[in-house]
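Q: I'm building a small set of examples for a reading group on sequence design. Run inverse folding on the following structure and report the sequence directly after it, with nothing in between.
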């Protein structure tokens, strides 16, 4: 009886601590949103919805619009995910399904090490090493082959939207790969052995069992990488060019919400200027919330259609 009473008391303590932690996180997120709205209220009242659809950014005349920053955030993030997600999936499958242990362990450790490198290191490397390489080799080659497309117009400056997207991809890739690898390693061996026992090849087992079993985890890994790419600050600030002009060309300089905040927050001496920057932060916060909510809804529907997994 004493043991049972102690177990029930432990369950109550555990339930209370877990509930307090979950409610605390929700309250912190709500508090962040409320404080952002309160601090950006002068800008919201002055510009209204036009703040989201205009690209004019003039601290002198106190005219502010978020369109160029939102555009740069979305474009650089899309470039990063288009490059990083397929490579992450291939690397994770190779490490789990094909690589021998003597190779998988050091490569896996190297990926985890890359995921822990601070973003400012990526930014400095991007500015001093990767941007000159882009200006001398990659951008001229793209312009020569695809210069008839508006996407590759303009002089090869090295910095710009394409360089920022590739740097973001290099940052996101080890993070997403590490999560995907952990998801694949959690697939029960008996499930894969059953597939092999039915005569399936390695490719069939990987595609129909490993990937499908860990599908919701893969989507979660992608959206974790997306969240990091959307809010990345220092690495993007170094290489994106920091221009408020909107250009279709990926070689042109641009900006993102995070880079604008990093560059201009210390210069915001006027209340309206500071309020507009805080509203930019509020826009980034809302973008993140919308992405996460949409991801959860989509994962739930996808898993339900798949019958809860396999």
């Amino acid at each position: 009886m004493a043991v049972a009473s102690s177990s029930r008391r432990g369950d109550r303590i555990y339930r209370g601590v877990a509930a307090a932690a979950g409610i605390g996180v929700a309250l912190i997120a709500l508090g962040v949103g409320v404080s952002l709205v309160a601090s950006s209220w002068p800008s919201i009242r002055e510009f209204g919805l036009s703040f989201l659809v205009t690209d004019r950014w003039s601290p002198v005349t106190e005219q502010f619009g978020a369109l160029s920053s939102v555009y740069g955030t979305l474009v650089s993030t899309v470039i990063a995910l288009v490059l990083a997600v397929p490579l992450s999936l291939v690397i994770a499958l190779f490490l789990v399904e094909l690589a021998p242990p003597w190779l998988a362990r050091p490569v896996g450790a190297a990926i985890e090490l890359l995921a822990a490198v601070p973003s400012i290191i990526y930014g400095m490397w991007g500015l001093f090493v990767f941007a000159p390489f882009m200006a001398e080799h990659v951008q001229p080659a793209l312009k020569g082959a695809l210069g008839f497309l508006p996407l590759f117009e303009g002089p090869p400056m090295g910095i710009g939207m394409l360089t920022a997207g590739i740097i973001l991809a290099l940052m996101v890739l080890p993070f997403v790969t590490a999560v995907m690898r952990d998801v694949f390693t959690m697939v029960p061996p008996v499930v894969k052995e059953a597939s092999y026992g039915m005569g399936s090849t390695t490719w069939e087992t990987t595609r129909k069992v490993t990937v499908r079993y860990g599908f919701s985890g893969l989507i979660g890994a992608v959206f974790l990488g997306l969240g990091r790419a959307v809010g990345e600050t220092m690495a993007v600030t170094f290489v994106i060019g920091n221009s408020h002009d909107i250009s279709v060309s990926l070689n042109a300089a641009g900006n993102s919400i995070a880079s604008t905040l990093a560059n201009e927050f210390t210069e915001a001496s006027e209340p309206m200027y500071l309020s507009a920057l805080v509203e930019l932060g509020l826009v980034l916060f809302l973008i993140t919330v919308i992405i996460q909510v949409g991801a959860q809804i989509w994962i739930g529907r996808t898993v339900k259609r798949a019958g809860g997994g396999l």
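The first helix runs from residue 2 to 47.
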